[in-house]
Amino acid sequence: MGLGSIQVEALTYIRGRSIPGQLIIIDEAQNLSKHEVKTIVSRVGEHSKIVLLGDPEQIDHPYLDAQSNGLTYLVESFKAEGISGHVTLEKGERSKLAQLAAEKL
């Protein structure tokens, strides 16, 4: 892959790999299990950075909730580690209806 290229991969193909020198972006991480997050983060190689994006209030996985999902697990597990950081955005940008749905449903 050349400089500036983007590669999209399914989680299925990450096992057994090491990913050095890359920026890895995982979207919708709130729908990952603790095991899946461990599988992904433990593949990050030297000189790589990983960013996980997600909203624990917008989980649509039938067996996960705001406390049991992989994103929340990772944030809690790494919060005291100097090698990691966490940002929480305070307001949604879709609509008032979408915000209510995320909070109440």
Low-pLDDT segments? none
Strand content: 5-15%
Anisotropy-based shape: globular
Distance between the termini: 42 Å
Secondary structure tally, helices: 3
Helical residues, percent: 10-25%
Return the structural class: alpha+beta
Spatial arrangement of strands, main beta sheet: 1-2
The number of E-state strands comes to: 2
In round numbers, the mean pLDDT is 90
User: What characterizes the major β-sheet?
Assistant: 2 strands, parallel
Number of domains: 1
Computed over alpha carbons, the radius of gyration is 15 Å
Order of helix and strand elements from N to C terminus: EHEHH
What labels describe this entry?
single chain; 105 residues; alpha+beta; two-stranded parallel ribbon; 3 helices; 2 strands; globular
Could you explain how this protein is built, in words?
The protein is globular. The protein has one domain. The chain has helices spanning 34-41, 70-78, 96-104, and strands spanning 23-26, 49-52. It has a two-stranded parallel sheet with strand order 1-2. By secondary structure, it is of the alpha+beta class.
Offer a quick outline of the entry.
This protein has 105 residues and is an alpha+beta fold.
